[in-house]
Amino acid sequence: MQLRIIKFLLFLLLFIFWNNFSFAETTSTEIETLQPKTASQKSEDVRVIKIGDAAQDIELKKIDTEWGIARNHLKNNDINNAIASLEKIKKLRKEASLQNLENITAVLLRKVRILLTESRLNEAIYLSNIAIELSPDFYPAYYTQGKILWKNNKISAISSYITGFKTASADFVHTFVRIGDFFIIGTTAFLFSVFIFFIITIIKYFPLLKHNLQEVTDSPYLQPYLTFIPWLILLLPLLIFGLLIAFFMWTILLWLYLNNKERVIIFLFILFVAYSQTIFSHYSIFLTTREASALNAIIKIEKGYWNNEIYEELIETIKKDPTNKGAFYALGILDKNMKEYEKAIAHYQRATVIDPNFAKVYTNLGNIYFLQKDYERAIENYKKAIEKDNTLISAYFNLSQTYRERFNFVEGEKVFQAARVKNPDLINYYVDLIRNNPLQLIIDEGISFNDIFVQAFKYPENHEAYVPGIWNIFEKRIKIEDTIKYVIILCSLIFLLFLLKKSVPTAAYCRECGKVICPKCHRSLLYKGLCSQCLRTFAQFDGIVKKEQVEQLVTFNRFQKRDALIMQISSLIVPGAGHIYYGMTFKGFTYAFFFIFSIIYLLLGNKMIYAENFFYYESDIIHKTAIFVFLIIIYSLSFYKIYKIKNRG
């Protein structure tokens, strides 16, 4: 039952993390310099961009003029006249086949927030509806509407939140932020959990280590100091070398006393160190990607914006990295949008040289030749696109349209039906798109989510400087490139200890009285880990210990007051620490990890990446309350289990 509750709470926490944001921020400079998105977008599988026509520029100017009027009305708090202008913008948007007007929507959402604080609920709801209609792919609009509806219609509010969640999942920036938050905070929480694990195991096994040192040391000069020597052995690596070497030394000193589950945690830590260069390289990606000009330019192009600054950023990118196919592909889209067809062809062709299997490039190349009425080359490129990726439905559709332009209706219908068999929904979408836009005959492939994701993981220029800098926060005395050497040494020592395990006199606790015993004590641990003295206290029949009675007594008498006190105190400090001390290693480590993860997320989440560039975060009391409730539940579950164990005896 507890496991189900934990799973449900973890799912609930994950849902809350993904929904912690409110408004997107677009500066006035961006609004003036960027043009709105002109993409007709299929949200499930593919993003398609309408090939522009000359009339569109006039429609954009009409929208800008009407928006200037609406904005003045909003500033003067004249909501009714503002709504009238916004209704005209809605019609102009449809006529221009524009998918999103995010710059207008962002301003409307800020006004909605003000209206909400003034308790003008009806006006706020109306403006939020217009904001969604103007930018159906702008997910903050759905969350804003959910906040408005929550007081009066919780079902509609939840529906709005769910729609916003689905829309946000298709947005690269949002997804990248979430992945970055979880990755960075998750690895940090793991390191803290490992540190807690070591502290608990040192407390747990320190008497055994001390006992073994006393047994192997016969020198009368060292005997008076044996109480302090074990502490020096444990603390010196931390004081002299650093955290990593300390962890390695503690692993060697405690290895013989650890149980199998505890050794699994050690191996997980060793794997972390072995792959630390890769892990911290990804750290640098999530921390420095916002400075990557190429990525930001490609994101803006994907959203339908273009200007000379974006173009120059991409040119600089390909000068520094001539193998960046994503930058060439984005330049091709940008050139085509600006009707620089020859430049677009050159950039697309360069992308095919870098990656001959880049199917979408051939589709877009075919589209440019189609616009130039060079149907032979268009057909040739569409066929290449299909050859490289036979699931690229836009290539089939464009090929069928090209055949029809050449009055080859039989071949066009054949290709069209082949595409319908492969993906009838997408073909129907394209047909509706063409029917509603008579000037559009073919479909142009845009920049997909995956394209941007690949571009994001191209290391930024300052990547190499960031990796050691981040690593130094964790360990200063060892270079990150030398970690493999230390891991090999550690694994070799562990293997040596494994071979010498039987020949090394290892101390252990009596599970009943808590005495520390080793083979040199001339006493041994007998049945169920009991010393001979404790075993004799149990009832015997014909000289044979009654196993059932021993098991029962061991269960009820294992935990002494000292152990119970340590478990309670450690559980109060960090949930799960008491479980680790008791021997429930995996459960305790999981409790500790999620507790630390929640604390770090509460303190730093959403302030780490992209926040100042893409989002405007407000103080969300509901979100913070939910995190606190989750922390209290973790505390309660952890402490309740320890309380039950304590009261068993």
Rounded to the nearest angstrom, the distance between the terminal CA atoms is 24 Å
What integer value in Å does the Rg equal?
Answer: 33 Å
Indicate the mean pLDDT: 75
Largest sheet: 2 strands, antiparallel
Level of helix content? 55-70%
Number of strands: 8
Specify the number of helices. Answer: 32
Largest sheet, order of strands side by side? 1-8
Q: What share of the residues does DSSP label as strand, in percent?
A: under 5%
Which descriptor suits the 3D outline?
elongated
User: Which residues form runs of ≥5 with pLDDT under 50?
Assistant: 1-56, 539-543, 608-619
Query: Structural class from helices and strands?
Result: mainly alpha
Question: What's the helix and strand layout?
Answer:
Elements (H helix, E strand, L loop, with lengths): L1 H17 L4 E2 L3 H6 L14 E2 L5 H21 L3 H17 L6 H16 L3 H14 L5 H10 L4 H16 L2 H45 L12 H12 L2 H12 L5 H15 L1 H13 L4 H10 L5 H13 L4 H13 L3 H14 L4 H13 L3 H14 L4 H13 L3 H14 L1 H13 L7 E2 L3 H8 L6 H12 L8 H17 L8 E2 L6 E2 L14 H5 L3 E2 L2 E2 L1 H11 L3 H13 L3 H6 L2 H20 L6 H4 E2 L4 H26 L3
Antiparallel strand pairs: 1-8, 2-3, 4-5, 6-7
Helix pairs in contact: 1-32, 3-4, 4-6, 5-6, 5-7, 6-7, 7-8, 9-11, 9-30, 10-11, 13-24, 14-15, 14-16, 15-16, 16-17, 17-18, 18-19, 18-20, 19-20, 20-21, 21-22, 28-32, 30-32
